[in-house]
Structures are given as C-alpha cells and as structure tokens.
Here is the input.
Amino acid sequence: MRSLDLKSVSNAVCELLTECAFCAGSDLVLKIHDALNKEQSPLGQTVLKQILENQKVAKCEAIPLCQDTGQVVVFLEIGSEVAFTGDIEAAINRGVNRAYTEGYLRKSVVADPLRRKNTGDNTPAIIHTKIFPGHDVKITVVPKGGGAENMSAVKMLTPAEGETGIIQFVLDTVKAAGGKACPPLIVGIGIGGNLEKAPLLAKEALLRDLADHSPLPHISNLEEKLLTKINETGIGPMGYGGRVTALAVKINTYPCHIASLPVAVNLQCHVTRHKSKVL
Ligand code: SF4
Here is the structure.
C-alpha cells in the first residue's frame, strides 16, 4: 500500500482552485478565438473580444476571471492501493478554505438553503468519490458559477420520446436560459442512468477537452447536431444575438432502465474552470 499524507490533498486543492480562478484553460482560449472567427454579429464580436481581453488581464494581474468564483465541486478518484489516516473530505475543505480566504476569492456558499447565512470560507465543497485500481489519487476541482448552474435542468423522458425528445429538451433548456447563463456556453449532457446519475454524467461531460468528440459515433453525431441547432437559436454571446451561443456540446451516457430515458443538461458559461492533479 502507498501511504498518502492528507496535507498534500489540501495543498493540491488550494493550488488548483487558485489557478482556476485566474487562468482560463488553453482549450477554452482557442475555442473563443475560433468563435470570434465564426461570429458575424458586431455586438457578438465585441463580447468575444472582451472575453479574450478579460482572460489576458485575469492571468497577468491575478484577478479572478469572474466575480462569481463559484461553488466548488470536487471529483476525487482514489486508487485502491492508497492508504491514508484521517478525514479526506475535511482535508479537501481545508484546501478550499485556504484558496478562498488567502486568495480573497468571493465566498459564495450559504450554510442553510433557507436561512442563507454565508459559511464565510466557501466550504463545504460538493465531493464525488470513486475508487479505482491503482496507487494514485486524482483530484479534479470545478468551481461552478451560479448563473449557468441555475439554468440547468433534468427531465425523465420516456424511451418513446427518443432522440427527438432529447433535442427538444436541450433546446428548450438553452432557450429558457437565454443570456442568463452567460453564453457562449459549453453544454454538458447526461443521457441514461437514473434521476441522480444523469446530472452527474452531465457535469462529468463538462470536464472533457473542448476539442474532443464522443467515441460513440451516434453520440458524436448528436453532439454535432445539437451544437448546430443551439447556434441557430441566435441567442449569441452574452445573449446579445449572434451565431455563437455554444462553443461545444458534450454528451456522456450510461445504461438505464427499460422504462426510462433520463436526460440532464448542465450549462457551463464561458468562464469554464476545472483543473486536475494526480498525487
Ligand atoms: S454564469 Fe459564469 S460568467 Fe456568469 S456570473 Fe456566473 S461564473 Fe460568471
């Protein structure tokens, strides 16, 4: 067994979140440049130029990419040959605390959803844990902004509704979001599983490289078809109208019950932030 010091977990979470707050991923920067070439609306072009300028300033001056520095989601993958003593979730939350307090990032978490008192350090994170064979621990942090998350949705379709029903639900969700989800979007879609699995698939889909495609040809085709249809809505960058409403559509799937067709749409704004580290 390999022994893991939980301090390294706290430190990794803190480093990854700090980097996420200021540095846009290279795949995102490329996609925005690509969007600028495709966008024909002058206002849409202006928005895309401002997004690129914002990315540069944030990185150079260590200023958050957005005032909404997000609620932290963590995907934790633990090798079955790794041993540690203590509370790994507490270690993750110590890393979140340090990143948000020492980095002066906005604290966006309330302790009770009805009483609404801020926890003061952006904890607790939402942590999803998986065990896999091996000696490594992989930590992925996703600070997720509230605007796009608020406009996300899940629906239990019937199998008879099929691909047509999925396309309609995704388009309805994107149209209802309009400019509120801060487009251009990355649209994460989970198809299959059940009521809790589909949204998790959709969130995991947002972690994929922006240039990749589903390895399943029929799903890759659906990703392309949806991207075209979403961009035909004319919502455009920040909802000001234009050709580029989404930068990418990512679909992850899972087996499901014969009577069900669960579909979840997790919208991600143009400030997509996620970083991983293997310990
Ligand atoms: S949805 Fe994204 S871009 Fe809009 S305010 Fe939230 S984090 Fe910022």
